[in-house]
């Protein structure tokens, strides 16, 4: 059975901060990276 790490909330807030910073840049300059980035985020969370 999988247990969520104690630091899960911290990691989610860090990912949210990274996403708010990087997503607009990806949409503007490299839209082809959107799918791999979202896949990595889903895997990480």
TrEMBL record:
<keyword id="KW-0472">Membrane</keyword>
<keyword id="KW-0812">Transmembrane</keyword>
<protein>
    <submittedName>
        <fullName>Transmembrane protein 33</fullName>
    </submittedName>
</protein>
């Amino acid at each position: 059975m999988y247990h969520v790490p104690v630091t899960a909330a911290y990691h989610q807030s860090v990912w949210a901060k990274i996403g708010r910073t990087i997503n607009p840049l990806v949409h503007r300059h490299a839209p082809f990276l959107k799918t791999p980035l979202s896949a990595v985020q889903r895997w990480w969370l």
